[in-house]
Design brief:
This protein has 288 residues and is α/β, with parallel strands linked by helices. It has two domains: 174 residues, Vaccinia Virus protein VP39 (Rossmann fold, 3-Layer(aba) Sandwich), CATH 3.40.50; 59 residues, N-terminal domain of TfIIb (Single Sheet), CATH 2.20.25.570. The strands form two sheets. The chain has a seven-stranded mixed β-sheet with strand order 3-2-1-4-5-11-10, with helices on both faces. A four-stranded antiparallel β-sheet has the order 6-7-8-9, with no helix packed on it. Helix 6 links the parallel strand 4 and strand 5. Helix 3 crosses helix 4.
């Protein structure tokens, strides 16, 4: 009990990792897969109509005839990879969750789709292949620490063909406007964190100096205490531009979303298209 009180009262250091991980915990991986496959609302995957609009915009801007190979980082169970494959791309999908990758491979076989899947941590990945498009969709970039973000951008730059493009989206600081730090709790019988009776303590911590928020969950059952850190860094346009230019990207465009809509004053998300060279500048617009 003393350990629990100490854990519950302590604010973690910025980007401190937890001993448990939602992508590898035996129970939460099943719940995460279920959430990924539910495309009726924005949860682990966006609504299906939003997914389809994004696929259509990307395939119009960067058609498979000119950009034939595509790497999808954080691909989950294949919601986007399957649709990219059907648009004519040669697709590779990478995800940390073995549960999601197993599902994705089975789904691809059932549909006779030729998709190459890897179960790996993409921040630690070494790739010999080179791709025309690399995607990182639904704000996954913001869950990484500053060190891992810098490392990933360097890796992505090296994995791209000379005319390649990185497409990803992020949350803006406005997403958390007016959201205070808080502590809440709930008891469930068969919920997201456990398939038995579970008391879950949920903390929201703000790190104002870094535009970062931590959602911490402490899941308490009769036999176990597990702790999960879910980090979410939010970005400014200037911060992204500096990081991408430091990685070597020379032509960068910003949009409201993965549908290519122009940025507005009250947006909570931003989509970035970053080219390795200026030769394909006309493909991504001029909002750089």
């Amino acid at each position: 009990m003393k350990k629990l009180f100490t854990m519950a009262m302590q604010k973690p250091a910025l980007y401190e990792t937890s001993k448990d991980n939602i992508w590898s915990d035996p129970h939460t991986v099943k719940r995460m897969l279920k959430a990924h496959l539910d495309t009726t609302e924005d949860s682990a995957t966006r609504r299906i109509e939003t997914v389809e609009k994004a696929i259509n915009w990307i395939s119009r801007q960067f058609p498979a005839e000119r950009y034939p190979t595509l790497l999808d980082l954080g691909c989950g169970p294949g919601v986007y990879t399957e649709r990219f494959c059907k648009k004519g791309y040669a697709v590779t999908g990478v995800d940390f969750s073995e549960h999601s990758i197993t599902y994705a491979m089975h789904s691809a076989r059932q549909q006779q789709l030729s998709i190459h899947y890897l179960c790996a941590d993409y921040t630690q990945l070494h790739m010999n292949s080179r791709f025309h498009i690399i995607t990182l969709i639904y704000c996954d970039f913001g869950v990484l620490s500053a060190v891992d973000r810098k490392k990933l951008l360097a890796s992505v730059y090296s994995w791209l063909q000379p005319e390649g493009v990185l497409l990803f989206d992020v949350f803006l600081p406005s997403r958390y406007d007016g959201v205070p730090e808080s502590k809440t709790w709930e008891i469930t019988e068969d919920g997201f964190w456990a398939d038995e009776r579970c008391l879950t303590l949920h903390d929201v911590f703000r790190y104002e100096e870094d535009n970062t928020v931590l959602n911490r969950y402490i899941a308490i059952t009769e036999d176990d205490i597990r702790q999960f850190h879910v980090w979410e860094h939010t970005f400014t346009k200037a911060e992204l531009q500096e990081a991408l230019q430091e990685a070597g990207f020379t032509n960068i465009a910003f949009f409201r979303d993965m549908n290519g809509n122009p940025c507005g004053d009250y947006d909570q998300t931003m989509c970035i298209a970053a080219c390795k060279s200026r030769t394909n500048a006309t493909d991504i617009g001029s909002d750089g």
